[in-house]
Amino acid sequence: MPLKNTNIVSAAQTKFGALEGVSLREMFSEAVDKATIGAGIPKKDIQAAFIGTFIPEMLVHQGHTAPLLLDYAGLRGLPATRHEAACASGATALRAAIMAIESGMYDTVLVAGAEKMTSVTTNKATEALAAAADDEFESSIGLTFPGVFGIAAVAHMQKYGTTEEDMARVAVKAHKNASTNPLAQFQKEITLEKALTPRYIAWPLKLFDCSPISDGAAALVVTSNEKAKEYTDLPVKIVGSGQASASMNLCERSELASFPASVSAGKAAYNMAGMTAKDMDFAIVHDCFTIAELIATEDLGLFKPGEAAKAVAEGVTALDGDRPVNPMGGLKAVGHPVGATGVKQIVVGYRELLGDAGPNQVPKHDKCIVHNFGGTGASCVVTIMRRGDA
Amino acid sequence: MPLKNTNIVSAAQTKFGALEGVSLREMFSEAVDKATIGAGIPKKDIQAAFIGTFIPEMLVHQGHTAPLLLDYAGLRGLPATRHEAACASGATALRAAIMAIESGMYDTVLVAGAEKMTSVTTNKATEALAAAADDEFESSIGLTFPGVFGIAAVAHMQKYGTTEEDMARVAVKAHKNASTNPLAQFQKEITLEKALTPRYIAWPLKLFDCSPISDGAAALVVTSNEKAKEYTDLPVKIVGSGQASASMNLCERSELASFPASVSAGKAAYNMAGMTAKDMDFAIVHDCFTIAELIATEDLGLFKPGEAAKAVAEGVTALDGDRPVNPMGGLKAVGHPVGATGVKQIVVGYRELLGDAGPNQVPKHDKCIVHNFGGTGASCVVTIMRRGDA
User: Fold this and answer.
1) A290 and A149 in contact (C-beta within 8 Å)?
2) Does residue A144 belong to the interface with chain B, where contact is any CB pair within 8 Å?
3) Are B76 and B47 in contact (CB under 8 A)?
4) B84 lies within 8 A of chain A by CB
5) Which residues have C-beta within 8 Å of that of residue B363, sequence separation ≥ 6?
6) Which of A4, A204, A255, A377 is the most buried (most CB within 10 A)?
7) B225-238 tens-digit pLDDT
8) HSE value, Cβ hemisphere, 13 Å, CA-based, for B65
9) Which of A58, A70, A99 to mutate to test the interface with B (most CBs of B within 10 A)?
10) String of b and e for B280-306 (b: at least 16 CB within 10 Å)?
């Protein structure tokens, strides 16, 4: 049964990038201000907050982020919980908010995510990120995330004949889309030749196959139907939400060219929404690495297994294609401040659905799917949204 | 309006203490096994999991704990999110589960909490715990948690004339109750003289005023009314749940002898349950330090401000008193594996309400209040439960 009572009535993000001199709490406050007073929603209307941060403990020696960040955003005192599922943290915060609204316990809540990553060296950040994998069996013996997705890429290459060029095309598209997105970390187009520069991070993944280390924050106001009317004539409805987990260890997986949690979470979301992949006008997927975008669009049934690369090459996933994917530039070019990402993806979906994406507007924008993915794919949350009048 | 559809149908914990050679995932699995198959509930009935861990990132270099722990507990694939609010992490996981059930999205879910703390030195654990306070303004300049609660103790002493002996009596009661609790870290009674041993940790708090560093896990199965009938004739009903936050900084508080988040969360829970402090037969409060128990019972309205110490001295809060507090020994003597604590408190409430607490059974056990508290009191969750037939 589709969700009946959950609306997004505002959505905002900060610029993503290396935000020198801007602290975690400052970024968070900026996103919350934009999503509340910036959208004409008084802060006093907010009843509770659901906050995604991944690993501020290791990046800025700060746990217990929910009350702290909320306080700095001018919302002291509200119920506030931090939700963590590695890179899917933001979407798990949204899911908690959905349940809060659907339970009738709250009418108007804040969902926000943030991460300050450039506070430490790249090596320290890599070590912190590695905490999202299994420390006893994988990360402690040297497997970091470029390695994890390098393994997935190799599996996909072997099974489907995917090439380094196929992956590079995903990067080219991401940079092209981000070139007109003023909130993106990278706003420069790149050529296929540049994307293929052999600066290998973890073979076959090269520099341009990897999303960057970023700072940033994003926020949403989520309400019941009744409350939504007070703020807007045109909310975005969340109609489906699915979540699944999987073994953290890759060694426990029987298949490496697909992520079982994406498949399960996608099915759950489609079932709840009463829709199929065919109904989706565009998609926002978790492209932490270029190969991840290819696999996600296959796992969600947007393309058949092994056919995503062809769709990219033919322009199907381009901004003006039949099935745009990551129309504003994705994690790859917009940046990936981990806790913010899952919320920022919803911000993108919201703007696109409402026709408010400027030069990045997709042509058809009634319904979309959003895919947020954690760690080695051990967590996945899929959200299906439609424009209120669609 | 009281919650109408949320039941606890099983509850279990591991032994708390320095569990040498037992890893985080092993403890977690033990608690889950006890709460599921140990209670006749097939694991396949569980539809989603809500997991509290505080800071495994710094204690065992492991983030993204929800899917990892769930996998090891034989529940691979389920939706699983980690909830964190410092020492209140466990209760925020329960709150998310309440919303999941009340929203109708799930019928049967797992709530579990765990922490492995003895994996690091006491200094490292103290540094990790300090991440629950404000790093920019307090913890980075040397304020650790014994200091925070030492400040609260001084404020309470100044305002109400509370003495070191008053606090020591809380420790004596805790150890007495834990002496008959085989799952407690400390199972030895202590004399008032011993509790007053002047081994100051942060004046006026001495060694016996402080809860220990512990390992442990706890788990609950939470269901809808319909499902509860399949498992038991006598569930425990959750009728009220309140959560609040406060400034993280003590310097932003106008009052230090009371915690505003406890007051607000308590009021919210009483309101929802349609009950008052007078209705509570016994209480389980967050006694991370002895002073915290005194203040919590005042903040929840169980005693008037400044009168909790007298109640303790007169035996009112003893196991056989009129208003037992922490009948199985509390954090102080049972131990405080941070992420597990909020769930373990519910386990205690469940057992007491069902008359299943053996030598630690309180005489009157229809309704109880449970108070879980995070960091400097910047988070608080209060839960009100009653026996299904009460």
Assistant:
1) no
2) no
3) no
4) yes
5) B320
6) A377
7) 999 999 999 999 99
8) 32
9) A99
10) bbbbbbbbbbbbbbbbbbbbbbbbeeb
pLDDT digits (tens, 9 = 90+) for A55-110: 999 999 999 999 999 999 999 999 999 999 999 999 999 999 999 999 999 999 99
Amino acid at A79: P
Name the CATH superfamily for A1-390. Thiolase/Chalcone synthase (3.40.47.10)
Return the exposure string of A169-182: e unless at least 16 CB atoms fall within 10 Å of the residue's CB, then b.
Answer: bbbbbbbbbbbbbe
Structure-token match 């004339």, residue found: B161
Mark which residues 104-143 of A lie under 8 Å from B by CB: 104-105, 128, 130-136, 139-140
Beta bridge partners of B243: B381
List the single best residue of B46, B64, B259 to mutate versus A (max A Cβ within 10 A). B64
CB-defined contacts A:B, below 8 A:
212
- Chain A partners within 8 Å of B47 (Cβ): none
Q: Categorize the per-residue pLDDT at A268 as very low, low, confident or very high, splitting at 50, 70 and 90.
A: very high
Segment A3-11 shows an average pLDDT of: 97
b/e code B149-180 from CB counts within 10 Å (16+ = b): bbbbbbbbbeebebebebbbbbbbbbbbbbbb
Q: Which of B83, B156, B286, B336 is catalytic?
A: B336
Q: Which of A83, A286, A336, A371 is catalytic?
A: A336
Whole-model pTM: value is 0.98
CB contact under 8 A, A95 and B81: yes
Of 3.30.565.10, 2.60.40.10, 3.40.50.11890, 3.40.47.10, the CATH number of B7-121+213-236 is 3.40.47.10
pLDDT of residue B333 exceeding 90: yes
Any idea how long chain A is?
390
- What is the pLDDT at residue B379? 98
- Give the pLDDT score at B244: 98
Spatial CA neighbour of B338 closest among B215, B192, B172: B215
Of B113, B181, B25, the C-alpha closest to B336 is B113
List where CATH 3.40.47.10 sits in chain B: 7-121+213-236, 145-206+238-332+347-387
Q: Please give the structure tokens belonging to residue B314.
A: 């007169």
Which of chain A's residues have a Cβ under 8 Å away from the Cβ of B104? 102
Inter-chain residue contact A245 with B80, CB threshold 8 Å: yes
Give whole-number Cα distances, B64 to A128, A358, A381, in Å.
11, 36, 14
Cross-chain residue pair B67–A378, CB shorter than 8 Å: yes
Q: Minimal Cα distance from B374: which residue of A?
A: A64
What is the DSSP track for B242-295? Answer: EEEE--S-GGG-S-SSS-HHHHHHHHHHHHHHT--GGG-SEEE---SBHHHHHH
pLDDT of residue B1: 83
Q: Is B336 part of the annotated catalytic residue set?
A: yes
Chain A hits for B128, Cβ within 8 Å: 57
B2 Cβ partners below 8 Å, 6+ apart?
B239, B240, B272, B273, B274
ipTM for the whole complex: 0.97
Residue that has been written with the tokens 């056990």 in this structure: B365
CA-to-CA distance for B161 and B169, rounded, in angstroms?
Answer: 15
Strands (E), chain A: 7-13, 48-52, 80-84, 108-115, 200-202, 205-206, 216-223, 236-245, 282-284, 367-374, 379-387
Catalytic annotation present for A87: yes
The alpha-carbon gap from A291 to the nearest alpha carbon of chain B, in Å, equals 22
Q: By the CB < 8 Å criterion, does A313 face chain B?
A: no
Look at residues B50, B53, B46, B48 and name the one whose alpha carbon lies nearest to residue B25: B53
The CATH architecture of the domain made up of B145-206+238-332+347-387 is 3-Layer(aba) Sandwich (3.40)
